[in-house]
Amino acid sequence: MPVTHPAAGPLRRPPLPDLAVSLAGALFVLAGAAGLVPGPAAVALAVAGGSALACVRLAWLAGAPPAPPDPAAPAPAGRQARRVALSRRVAGILDAAVLAAGLTVAVLPLSDPAHRLPVALAGLTITAPLYALALLRLPGRSRLSGGERLRRGVDVAGLGVSLVFAGWVLLPAGPVPPAARAASVGGALALAVLLVAAFAERRRRPGAARCHAGAATTLGALALLVVLLAYATPERALLVVAPPLLAGALLTAAGARRTAAGERPRRDAAPAAWPGLTAPAGIAALAAGQHLWTVGEFTAPAIALGLSVIPPMVVREVLAATDQRRRAERLAASEARLRHLVGEDRLPADTPPADRAELVHALTRRAGGALLVVDLHGADETAVLDRPVLAEVVHRLRSGSGAHDLVARLTDTEFAVLTDLGPVPAYALGTRLLAALAEPCPRPGGVSRIRASIGLAETTGGEPEDVLRQADLARRRAVQLGRDRVEWYDAYLEEQLVRRLDLERELPGAVARGELDLVYQPVLALADRQPVGTEALLRWRSPALGTVLPEELLPVAADLDLLGEVGRWVLDRACRQLADWSGSGRELWMAVNVTPRELAAPDFVARTATALAAYDVPPERLVVEVAEPAVAAELSTVVARLAGLRSLGVRTALDDFRAEHASLAQLRRLPIDLLKVGPHLVGPGADGQRPLIDVVANLGDRLGLEVVVEGLESDAQVAGARRAGCRYGQGFVLARPAPAERVEAWFEEFPSTPR
Predict the structure, then answer these.
(1) Does this model's pTM top 0.85?
(2) Distances from the Cα of 310 to the Cαs of 157, 184, 214, 307, in angstroms?
(3) Mean pLDDT of 223-227
(4) What gap in Å lies between CA 276 and CA 157, rounded to an integer?
(5) Residue 514 burial by CB count (10 A; 0-12/13-18/19+): exposed, middle or buried?
(6) Per residue in 61-102, pLDDT tens?
(7) How many whole angstroms separate alpha carbon 491 and alpha carbon 474?
(8) 413, 375 in Cβ contact below 8 A?
(9) Pairing, β 706-709 against β 728-729
């Protein structure tokens, strides 16, 4: 089994407009610091570009027309559509919040110095409620349990008190202006709420987390602006609010864009680790050190406020210890259930149970190594994990793994192996586990054979949930490629699988939404290069995914059982277009591609007859093509359906003929009229022998078949096909695929009527 090393994932770079406005903002801040531009003007100019860019993006998101509802769409698709619509409404509110913050600093250089503080207060008073309203309405917000609310509240209290303490001791000595006191306390508490929420949602709802972070950055900067203006600081001091205001606007727009794109909350994602002890303690310690350095002593209220940072941290540690104890209890209970299920005498004493949450917890303690996700399948499609088989699976996984490796059960048919081995030894471990699991497994009344698919991901450089997701993606790839294999995660693999998931999500309802389209590639007579027919080629014009070709579309349609719906649409549209061209005096044929699975449908022949009658199309003008490599599995059914089509008068074609021995053997059985071959047969044969196209053309002539050479891309290939006696050709050198209107205009260039 070949080993393929993972490719490094591409680094995500900020979009070019974001880099441009950030660079411009930095230049204006430097100009203000150098005294080239007044402080308020430098702040306004530095923030203007980012605010304008964010406002345009948010306005576009808010104004984008929602996709029309599809009555036939499943319930999850409907929920997704509602989530997207709600995200777009929220984008309008966020747009107003970013605009209010941007206008606040834009008005400063135009205002009298005495009026700047009221302007800043007004901006903060308007921006804060808008952000609060938008963040509370973001889709995907989950209802917290009582324990989660308590932990979230303790984290907010600890961080909030530390920020209030920092603001208290860092303010200049003497009387504190009321506006500065209100802004510092309110800003500290708002920062605590928003930052804790951003960390909690970072894995489950990354878009919402960015919106929270953008709100925290923006509101913190506005609160700092109020404090600076309340103390009448020098104008250059105002420059410190420009970077956070610029970053806040861009973060808000980025988060809204992600949620408006239909971000699905990851229900199984654990909250990101919040530094509940180090963050409050570090902030308080740094603020206290700065105060001692500059002032030298603390007042009694400052001491009391500093000490109030301690209780939330103590409570948090108590809650963490309680959670740890409960986790250990669940672990013991899970292990007891597993031992009861598989039999105590068959299960190794050191085999851990493990559920997804427990595995994630173990991943947080691993500095390196790899994770293997093992998916089990029964070779006879029967239940593979009854008690004896499960006991044997656990035994083989444990025996094949290292002494310090963790074996965890994820679902009824999935296990995980967490190892300290590097990626290449871990791959070798995966192949050993495959071999061990492939051995017959004894069970009462006989044996059971197990097939397995294993996905492998490195544990370095990623969050636990990301590592588990990557290993699971690799496992899915192993299943798709035929099972009994180990697949290694890399960034390209994830792109492929995410693309596949996007296709599966968007394809249902594409016909009803009018997203399918046909383009037509002419078929020409090689003797005079006159058009004689066209081939209808399917395209899916997806608003979300762009143009999707049949090679990518049809496998997804087959898995979703949508081939019949797509095929009916193609046949109907092709017959309608053929009727339009026939009505204008052009006697062309129209070739339509079908898969053996479509052809095997009992009503395919009757459906074809109905489409021809509906548009009054002569049957001989329709050509039904089926690809030769896919025929063998359904040969008898394909023969019957092709014979039924020929009885209607419809012509039939065998596409992608390979000229191999097996292909030649089944050619006599297939009732076809046209044989389509690729350009590779036109070139010289091996050892100077004559081209295979000569053999195929001679065979076609003896069997009464017309040969069409497709994929022609050079005049030399056209000449070779013509020399061999092939009558028809198709390819870019002759005519490219195009919409019906362009093909019809191209037909006008030919004076004679095609036959």
Answers:
(1) no
(2) 10, 20, 29, 6
(3) 92
(4) 10
(5) exposed
(6) 887 555 444 443 344 445 556 666 667 788 889 999 999 999
(7) 10
(8) yes
(9) parallel
